[in-house]
Amino acid sequence: MEIWFNPARELDTLLRATAAVTPGFTGPFNPEMRPAEPRYGDFQANGILACAKAAKANPRALATALVATLKASGKLDDALVAVDIAGPGFINFKLTPRFLDAWLARYADASAFQSGASAFYAGKKVIIDYPSANTAKQMHVGHLRPMVIGEAIARLLQFCGADLVRDNHIGDWGTNFGVLILAIKRSGYALDNAGEAALEDLERLYKEGSALTKSDPAALDAARAELIKLQTGDPENTALWQRIVAVSNAACQEMYDLLGVKPDVTLGESFYRDKVARIYAELTAAGLAEESEGALVVWHDGHPRFSRTSEPSQPFIVRKKDGGSNYASTDLATLLYRVEHFHADECIYVTDGRQQDHFQQLFLTAQKWFDATGRKLPALRHVWFGTILGEDGRAMKTKSGDSVRLKALLQKATDEAFAIVSTKNPDSPEAERWQIARTVGIGAVRYADLCQNRTLDYTFSLSKLLAFDGNTAPYLLYAVARIHSIFRKAGLAFGEGTQGASPLETDAEIALARKLLDFPVALEQACAELRPHFLCTCLFELAGAYSSFNNADKVLVDEPAVRARRLMLCARAATALSVGLRLLGIEPLERM
Ligand code: ARG
Q1: What are phi and psi of 325, to 5 degrees?
Q2: What is the pLDDT of residues 380-406, one digit of tens each?
Q3: pTM recorded for the entire structure
Q4: Which of 55, 153, 201, 307 is the most buried (most CB within 10 A)?
């Protein structure tokens, strides 16, 4: 029998296949595999009950028949996985210590993990759209989540075999450029110096311009005229726009570097400006779009909010009254490009929760449009997230009510981490303390964002996220560093000294091994639901199991086989924690 990376998944597949050849099973069988209560085993298949009910059969008899076929098939070695039937017809699976030993031997390093996990997303072309910020704005705390969550999901999917394209769909085209260009021209501002100061100036100019266009209709007309000039390729406005985008991209790049975000392509909204006409034509020809008050709109009849009879009615406007394209038309063109150019099997969009309606309308429209044109729609997924709250429970702001700059926030986290690291290791060189502080500070901010279900809001508290106990990055990083120090103390390189390990023996060893087997389960669940917090929870529990093991069983004992076995468990725990942290975008440290 093969030593599966994720036994829960393989047992599920095996049970489905077995049911298909077992008398008494009609139609597809869903095993409903879940973790079992520890006294029953590792996994439990509960699906027999629903299946028996549907077939009006005795569940216990059905379970018995299924297990008999399974055993006769020879596909399950009972020295590795024990099976039994409990209660009315639950099937329990228990991984034997022999399985655990074999698993630990087989999945010994990051590349073994990766090859085990590669089946989860193998062969899928995935386009992930993040962080996709709007141009001409400084990055503030609101830009943290798309970067952190987008990057974690990208790494997860890539690790699990996806053929991934990170597409940074920046908002570099739209009405605001008319206002901004007008304000730049009126103020006589020379936009030739790049850098942060320029971006600050642009933000101020935009605010001035937008106040002006609100109070003065002539200015509004002038801004529209500037926009039309830009849209029709006027050289002066085009040059100005290019400089605005360049200034803005340079500032974003600094944040990408800090947070390890590396887009493969940056195809912003402007890239699609000549690709929207085709969308209008196709949607109209398919009878999906119609004129309404001068705009081109798509209704979704029968939908509670998007149909023409909904109150208030909320059409999907794909072309504005003034004939211009918008967010919707651009996204439709973007989707088509991702299909035709990248051959996407799946498109993932990472944005905040306020865009849920937009994406629902986009996905509904795309489905009808693709059906009408005989195209195959990729899987479309909106990965949305909640808001970061200040300690007052409201969207995080500075004391003066401005948005908190991302750079300042990350700097503050790093400074505080430096203070903590300096108290813990007053004697280590300052440069080393800063290096640790950067990992700990930024890692802590990242982890705090990822460890909760992304659709929830969360409160940003530097003291909590920097704590060395609890579900935090410092806690996990420290666990890894502590394991490395065990090897150092024994005079060994990491992972050495594990030859000749005897089979697992103590309760704490077995408990730690079982926790390690949760890693693939968490990985797969995080991928399936695109929710990295499943991985965080697993890492946190794994660090807890490691710590219990470490308290119960001394590692560096004299008995060579026991010492080797415990060193092996240490190495496996550190490997799983390190792989997990890297997937979350946090580079583990060997010393802290
Ligand atoms: N630029 C948008 C914003 O800042 C996010 C774009 C997300 N991607 C997309 N294809 N709509 O809100």
Answers
A1: -80, 170
A2: 999 999 999 998 999 898 888 888 999
A3: 0.95
A4: 153
